[in-house]
Design a protein that fits this description.
Length: 60
């Protein structure tokens, strides 16, 4: 029983994986921000390509 208490105490006090989790959360927030920002931009770029295609089609 004493061994189990020591293992449990060491497990609770262990912070070795904490940095990895923090970096993963930061990466997730940055990714979500990039997706949210680039989605309207993708619509704008699609509109530009559609306009260019229409101009080229009418010129031929």
């Amino acid at each position: 029983m004493k061994n189990f208490k020591m293992i449990a105490k060491n497990f609770v006090n262990d912070e070795s994986g904490q940095d990895l989790i923090e970096y993963a959360l930061v990466a997730a927030v940055v990714s979500l921000g990039a997706v949210a920002t680039l989605k309207p931009l993708a619509t704008e770029i699609g509109s530009v390509f559609t306009a260019v295609t229409a101009e080229l089609t009418s010129a031929v």
